[in-house]
Design brief:
It is a single chain. By secondary structure, the protein is an alpha/beta fold. It has one domain: DHBP synthase. The protein is 26% helix and 20% strand. A ten-stranded mixed β-sheet has the order 1-8-2-3-7-4-6-5-9-10, with helices on both faces. Strand 9 and strand 10 form a beta hairpin. The longest helix has 12 residues. The chain is globular, with a radius of gyration of 16 Å. The relative contact order is 0.25. InterPro entries: DHBP_synth_RibB-like_a/b_dom, Sua5-like_dom, SUA5_domain.
């Protein structure tokens, strides 16, 4: 059964965040809130966690996983960014955007797109996510919590706990965080290409 954590949305309790982080370090797969919608997350090197995310969401090998990062310094460890792309992404973060970029050698082999060698990265503007990332000290490998055959992600922690009780290890609930996923921008060729229009304003990339 999944452990349920009720966290204050603006002032997350340090002890609770520490407890969740300990579970993630021990191999847990968690459902957690972001600034766009709930996500599934685990440590980068957690092969079982990656496999479980694929199973829950019915994803194939071409799916771009996202590394949810605390800040730009952390993001820069895992993707290659030139100066122009750096400025464009810097101006849009933190926020509800996912950027697809060439992965560095620090990204575990199982994560990059098998042909393009790219990975998604983002810096969320959400107090609970930021507190969790600060406690873990590394990115969370993540994917939007959108179940197969459904048009919108679940928005209520109690519903996630009820429906995914036996396939995730923990649910972090800080209230409704919306149903609109991130806007996805592909910068893998150096130019902005809008892959998905979502919560982030696309005007700056058009």
């Amino acid at each position: 059964m999944a452990k349920y954590f009720d966290v204050h949305p603006d002032n997350p309790q340090a002890r609770t965040i520490s407890n969740v982080a300990d579970r993630i370090r021990s191999g847990a797969l968690v459902a957690y809130p972001t600034d766009s919608c709930f996500a599934l997350g685990c440590q980068m090197g957690n092969r079982d966690g990656i496999s479980r995310i694929r199973s829950i969401r019915n994803l194939d090998d071409r799916h771009h996983f996202t590394l949810v990062c605390q800040d730009f310094a952390q993001l820069g460890q895992f993707v290659h960014i030139d100066k122009d792309v750096f400025r464009a992404i810097k101006a849009a973060t933190p926020g509800s955007y996912t950027f697809i970029l060439p992965a560095t050698k620090d990204v575990p082999r199982a994560l990059p797109h098998p042909k393009k060698k790219t990975v998604g990265v983002r810096i969320p503007d959400h107090a609970v996510t930021q507190a969790l990332l600060a406690e873990i000290g590394e990115p969370l490998l993540s994917s939007t919590l959108l179940l197969p055959g459904e048009d919108e992600p679940m928005t209520q922690g109690w519903e996630i706990k009820e429906r995914l009780d036996h396939v995730v290890d923990a649910v972090v609930d800080s209230g409704d965080c919306g149903t609109e996923p991130t806007t996805v921008i592909d910068f893998s060729d150096g130019e902005a290409r809008i892959v998905r229009r979502g919560a982030g304003d696309t005007a700056r990339f058009e």
